[in-house]
């Protein structure tokens, strides 16, 4: 038994992030499976979701593809998503959402993409998640570029 992951998964149930992930997976009419301590919902139909996968608590939602297809494209994807499950736990659940959005906004200012300077994506491993690390730029330049559109 992997005690740390069991405790993480219990924390994610108690902080309501895993129940939210299960509801999202059901609404998306995905296929539910288990992989290690994670619940995988593949072939999910969620509008506007353009990522290879999204983790909510200890639930990994994979839009449109099967788990096998997603791993064929990004072999280390599940290790990356497992790190996001830890982040949901240490952020105490739903506070992860605004923290992630703020980190994504910061990354857009610093690099022009949502991952390069996003603390959560960097901590989970950019390459493991299938991201390319972009160039960071001065904050002033980033703000100017965002304002210009």
From TrEMBL:
Protein name, as recorded: Uncharacterized protein
Organism: Tessaracoccus flavus
